[in-house]
Amino acid sequence: MTSLIGLINKIQRACTVLGDHGGEGMSLWEALPSVAVVGGQSSGKSSVLESVVGRDFLPRGSGIVTRRPLVLQLHQTEGGTDYAEFLHAPRKKFTDFAAVRKEISDETDRITGKSKQISNIPIQLSIYSPNVVNLTLIDLPGLTKVAVEGQPESIVEDIENMVRSYVEKPSCIILAISPANQDIATSDAIKLAREVDPSGERTFGVLTKLDLMDKGTNALEVLEGRSYRLQHPWVGIVNRSQADINKNVDMIAARRKEREYFETSPEYGHLASKMGSEYLAKLLSQHLERVIRQRIPSIIALINKNIDEINAELDRIGRPIGVDSGAQLYTILEMCRAFERVFKEHLDGGRAGGDRIYGVFDHQLPAALKKLPFDRHLSTRNVQKVVSEADGYQPHLIAPEQGYRRLIDGSISYFKGPAEASVDAVHFVLKELVRKSIAETEELKRFPTLQSDIAAAATEALEKFRDESRKTVLRLVDMESSYLTVEFFRKLSEQPERSASDKNASDKNAPDRNAPPPGPQNPERFSDHHFRRIGSNVSGYIGMVCDTLKNSIPKAVVYCQVLAAKRSLLNQFYAHVGRQEVKIRSVCEPV
After folding, report:
1. Which pLDDT score is estimated for 318?
2. H/E segment holding residue 588
3. Rounded alpha-carbon distances, angstroms, from residue 138 to 42, 68, 175, 337, 407
4. Burial level of 220, CB count in 10 A (0-12/13-18/19+)?
5. Alpha carbon distances (Å) from 552 to 127, 541, 548
6. Cα(359)–Cα(72) distance, rounded to whole angstroms?
7. Largest CB tally within 10 Å, which of 122, 462, 526, 548?
8. Which of 428, 410, 541, 417 is nearest to 474 (CA)?
9. Can you give the pTM of this predicted structure?
10. Confidence label for 513 from pLDDT (cuts 50, 70 and 90)
């Protein structure tokens, strides 16, 4: 029995640490049996708990003293000194139980403040002693009927709802505390127990303050089950009197005094073997063992379910990290590869985001090219100005080639703006995809330092790719200026020759009235039609260049930025990690 209930206590403690208090279906915490101590204010709940434990450790006072649930786990040891541990201070052992009382008060005030408010956040306390039985008890705030000064009007309902949240669980054993000097029909604990456990299968009745009943009266009608029958026997308790508490009478002496009371009592002497706090503790422990044995199959099923869920969670967030640097390096590399997989999925279409890069090439770049001011640059007035300036003091002889080149160079320079804008737009998309990929990589979520390092390394790499891409697209633009496509202009010069060959032979020798006079010509004397033709020719050539760059700029950007990011986004980070192996431990510290 000791090992079985002790194991359940450890499972309950683990559930508390892991935060298993609910979720879909019944949680493991709800399935594990425990004993909830229920009673009205000043019914003697705290004294019963102290009698069971054999230690004076609970805060005392008037009004609502228990303002947070106290989950008390008793662990029977084979010997040694009694000590206590709180879950919120796991590595601190309390051997002075007066300090335990103060810690309970301080921890209560930490959540509720020094007011009369209540909180449903439990305090977890474990007591280790050879003088206790293995048991889990939950001390709940005392039920009350009216709100006193400093309490909200809803305090009555709030306390009842809190108590119900524990006693409604099918696995909860209800320890209903009622004072013997009050009518059992008015007992708050019995009333509530009857509502949540009508059959009485889970309810144990406890009568306190038997020694305070009026002379000539007794509680035999209740203790023998004639007044109110339960499926389990009623147990009478005689707690320490206020005088005993003031005199610091220890619990061992109080237990001895309680036994003497029942053994020498003319009313209760025949029930002495089934009365008292020691008997109550054994009764609860034996019943708890039976309940546990009945629930073992369902408990095992829930434990296996929790194990599967925890394993799935571990697979999601990552397994424990090795202590040696080699294992930690391997873990870092695995998490980096997981990030790179997510990043590539964004680019390749497995996740959203990569389509925005195509949008840059399909919408943003063509729109920017259409807005370039070629109409203004190739206007008749500007063409005349550029051609005149290009000839200088000596006008061109046949065709204004220098003027053509200047007009073409000036037009081509406009392409640099959209080319650089495409590079920056793709860079922004890639940075966003890095940020999203880090957030979506489950393995990285518990390593904020590693997240920051990967983000910094990826951003640095993307900036290098952007710089290289910008150089490449600007080279493409400069290439169009460095060597013009002569074939385009040859085709232009062949067009009038073809039309002339189609004329009659008699017309071949006829002078061309529209042709300029032979010899050097001054461009200022050319007609607007001539300059419009030059502008039209340059515009046609620029259109051809525009079509070329519309195809080559995306190729350069994808090659220099997108493919480079897919191939080597974290290469520098890998090299850095390899050199900084001694610093890996700090990077691998989870939150």
Report:
1. 63
2. none
3. 17, 10, 10, 48, 91
4. middle
5. 77, 17, 6
6. 63
7. 462
8. 417
9. 0.54
10. very low
For the beta carbon of residue 565, count every other beta carbon within 10 angstroms: 23
pLDDT in tens, 14-39: 555 445 444 344 455 566 778 899 99
User: How many residues would you count in the chain?
Assistant: 591
- C-alpha span between 86 and 58 (Å, rounded): 14
Q: Look at strands 123-129 and 83-86 and give their pairing.
A: antiparallel
3-state secondary structure of 374: helix
DSSP string of 283-337, one letter each residue: HHHHHHHHHHHHHHHHHHHHHHHHHHHHHHHHHHH-PPPPSSHHHHHHHHHHHHH
Amino acid at 578: G
Instruction: Return d(Cα 71, Cα 137) in angstroms, integer.
Output: 6
Nearest CA-CA partner of 138 in 296, 30, 226: 30
* Closest CA relative to residue 31, chosen from 134, 143, 136: 136
What is the spatial distance between Cα 30 and Cα 18, in angstroms, rounded to a whole number? 14
Q: Contact at 8 Å (CB) between 484 and 408? A: yes
Instruction: Using the CB atoms, write b or e for 322-359: b if 16+ within 10 Å.
Output: eeeeeebbebbeebbebbbebbbbbbeeebebbebbee
**In this structure, what token pair is assigned to residue 17?**
């640490």
**Separation CA 469–CA 302 (nearest Å):** 57
The answer to whether 357 and 426 have CB atoms below 8 angstroms apart is: yes
Tokens of 299: 């408990």
Q: What letter would DSSP give residue 111?
A: H
Give the pair of three-digit tokens for residue 445: 């979520």
Joined together, the tokens standing for residue 67 give 């303002």
Identify the three-state secondary structure at position 65.
Answer: coil
Rg of the chain taking only CA atoms, in angstroms:
45
Backbone φ and ψ for 32, nearest 5 degrees, come out as -85, 130
In terms of C-beta density within 10 A (0-12 exposed, 13-18 middle, 19 or more buried), how is residue 418 classed?
Answer: buried
Report the Cα–Cα distance between both ends of the chain, in Å, rounded: 39
Residue 469 burial (CB count, 10 A): 26
In the predicted model, is pLDDT for residue 512 greater than 50? Answer: no
450 — phi, psi (to 5°)?
-65, -35
